[in-house]
Amino acid sequence: MVYPKTITPHRDQSVNDMLKYLLQRLFWMVPLLIGISLVSFLIIHLAPGDITTTESGFDPKASEESRQKLREIYNLDKPVIVQYGLWLQRMVKMDFGTSFASHQRPVFWQTKDKEGNVTPGMIQEALPITLLINVLSLALILVIALPLGVVSALTQNRAPDRAITLFVFVGFAIPGFWLALLMMYWTGVVHDWLPISGLHSQGAESMNWFARALDTLKHLALPVFISALSGLAGISLFVRNGMLDVLHQDYITTARAKGLPENTIVYGHALRNALLPLITILGLSIPGLIGGSVIAESIFAIPGMGKLFYDAVLMRDFPVIMGILTIGSALTLLGNLLADIAYAWADPRVRRGVMQ
Amino acid sequence: MLTSCGKTPIGNTVDFSVEYPPEDGGTMIDATRGEPGGLITMIAGEAAASAVAQNIFSSLLRYDKNLEFEGELAESWQVSPDQKTITFKLKPDLKWADGKPLTSADILFTWKLVTDDKTRTPYGSDYKLVVRAETPDARTFRVTYAEPYAPAVNSWAGLQILPKHLLQGQDINNTPFARNPVGSHYYKLEKWRSGEQISLVRNPLSTQGPARIERLVSRFIPDEASQFLELMANNIDTMILNPVQYARIFPARPELEQKFGLYKELGNSYTYLGFNLKHKPFDDVRVRKAINYAINKQELIDGVLLGLGEPVSSPYKPGTRWTNPNLAPYSYDPEKARELLRQAGFKDSNGDGILERNGKPLSFEILTNQNKQREMSAVLIQRRLKEVGIDVRIRVLEWASFIGRFIKTGDFDMVVLGWSLAIDPDQYNIWHSSQQAPGQFNFIGYNNSRVDRLLEKGRMELDPDKRMKIYHEFAQILQEESPIVYLFAGYGLPAIHKRIKGIDNPAPPAGIGHNSQEWYIPKPLRRTEISQ
Predict the structure, then answer these.
(1) Range of the domain at B158
(2) Which is nearest to B332 in space by CA: B300, B307, B308, B361?
(3) For A321, B79, B169, B325, which has the most beta carbons within 10 A of its beta carbon?
(4) B259 and B278 share a domain?
């Protein structure tokens, strides 16, 4: 594509504007984050009970005096707003604190003591595995949903379109845990094709790296498949509708009139424009990448973020809950920003809109 | 080779019911629902932690198969004539798994830890009653109490001894030792794969002699159904079944019964319906008794547990010495229930099927937490109470809210909850009238001076036979007063692969695992293991 020459002198100017815009957005994230954290802090403290009611709350051997002592150690006896102040004080130094339960393990990242013993952080351990599953499943969704959406649009209201729509909606509607259990039974008990749960086989330590990677992939196959299946419907319908919009526009008619080959029209002209809204969707799904599904993680015995968060909520383990919420909200804001930037990068019309 | 997932390729052709002589080695894999945070039980306090830690750490005393005390680290123990001093004599030549000697100094160190105000444990109170702890020599540990304290003996069976040489100067609350412990029991930690599994290997320096099985692996599988699939696929050797799996699925699948032995052991807790005795009309014993008579316990056992449980009539394990053999559960007798309610002044004056007194209908809410067995029990109770003219609504709550919002504040009419079937008979914290402050355990508000006196006396009496009489009388008063309705005690239902031999069946009161160090896996029956 050839740009009109008059734009070139404005280029430096527009980069500067872009930077200014970026800094502005980043700056406004700070008060937003503080607001979000304050609201979440207040809400989780609204729930009755605290760590001393959950951890040993109903063991007659645990006395109320010792529980009161624990509440004082954790500052749970102070007013909520004071507790929030203490938490914010730590967060300013990027200190996520230590869990109330679980031997005070660090919430976010590992710590090292004087003797060099490393205690791994809870989020540090859970995050990579959840990310891996979510990235794999997002990739799988895109790989399958894009062609499905295009085919759907091209065969609108004919048999292939109907079949694809039916398929993705069935995938969307099927309860994941039920299908997961059936698949586990079929591929793990009836046939010896895939492992049932967990991440590694017994004796995985002694395998070479290739066998280990293969072993992990086999363990991840079902969880990734199940989580991708429910995501197909959204993306493929999105692509389908985007394509349909674009295919009815004048420039496509023009391209057809010029006698361009159908493939060039569909993939060269139509699809590129139809994919633009997908950027927003992907940007919005960034925070989703760090959230796992509690049910899937429990069924497949995967130690991911969903289970970590769920257990923390049940245990009223405030530092862990707040740690995950903070990281999640920061990522949400960042994801929005990235989506906007990517949009501006991909679409000159939006770029001009941002600058004004 | 790449497809080997630790399965026996010949799985279906091996006859697992053949008997073999005992031999060492092999791996037993089990599944637990939760992962422990750490393995120092005085800090962790979770069931998942103690299940693993009990294979690693030893206590001074333990319970034998009939739930009587015997020495674990202690060779003997003596109670002084005034019943205030207990002297423990350690077995000779005890060693930690790292080869360092285990002496009375370690026990003193552990006692100091558990009573230290900086230690974040809720379990310190029993040990804080010790006014003097001393170590006259390396094999003797002596504790003195201000006055005789019978649960003390039990408390020393519950305190897992920690190594002084590794923990001195460390902050017990977040020491890395919790995830890399060194103990003195049959097993030691081999590898802890976070979020996945813990494996233990035999400790050659075990203070209790050698165990037979070489390696114990506990996989963390939170979902019951997934555990069961792993069991069916022969990837784990044992799990605790639920009644449906035990009584319905297993009998329908002969290939499972071929491979797995099913066992029954006495449960560790009982389920009850508790009244708020401070609320009217539950202060009236006739109303409590009427409700007790109106509930059909056998129906609950059959419906909720598929028959896999038994009724109880005292808060102790049936078959142990603390259970009063003369007590029987309240029978199911709706006629008697109606009669008692009539005597208490209730009648249906407006014909809506619900009884009233002074215009106030017998209409309550049963609270319980998200626990399938308790929810189902509440539903059956609701129906039976309706038949005698009591209207009941059910409300199911999340645990922390239930405890924090309703139990602590005393804001409830009836609850369905569970208490453990205690091994030590002391129930002071649950039934003594002084234990009613918010957060304490007599939240139903039970207040009986005779029971108070018995509980105080029982705490001061270390002689088992005299203690037994005290608690038999205590259970009898509870039975007459009916401050709670004992519903049932469910069985523990382990399924264990038949490759594991040496299991004591039927299980003694201490449960199926009491002799697990003697269990063995004959070589021909083992899984093919990838050699290390």
Answers:
(1) 61-172
(2) B300
(3) A321
(4) no
Q: Residue B479 domain-assigned?
A: yes
3-class DSSP assignment, residue B86: strand
Residues B358-399: pLDDT tens digits? 888 999 999 999 889 999 999 999 999 999 999 999 999 988
Tokens coding A301: 């015995």
Say yes or no: B253 and B273 in one domain.
no
Do residues B196 and B209 make contact, with C-beta atoms less than 8 angstroms apart? Answer: no
By the 8 A CB rule, do B525 and B16 touch?
yes
Q: Is A64 on the interface with B (CB under 8 A)?
A: yes
Q: What average pLDDT does chain A have?
A: 82
Contacts of A212 in chain B (CB under 8 A): none
CATH number, domain at B107?
3.90.76.10
Q: What's the pLDDT tens digit per position in B124-171?
A: 888 999 999 999 999 999 999 999 998 998 899 989 999 999 998 888
Q: Are residues B398 and B472 in the same domain?
A: yes
Q: What's the total number of domains in chain B?
A: 3
Whole-number CA gyration radius for chain B: 25
Query: Which of A43, A54, A63, A194 to mutate: most B Cβ within 10 Å?
Result: A63
ipTM of predicted assembly, 2 dp: 0.81
Nearest CB to A55; choose among B2, B40, B45: B45
Between B45, B158, B229, which is nearest A196 by CB?
B229
- Sequence-distant (6+) residues with CB within 8 A of B460 are B83, B147, B148, B149, B150
From the list A103, A195, A206, the residue facing B43 with the nearest CB is A103
Shortest CA gap A335–chain B (Å): 29
Q: Please check whether residues B503 and B479 belong to one and the same domain.
A: no
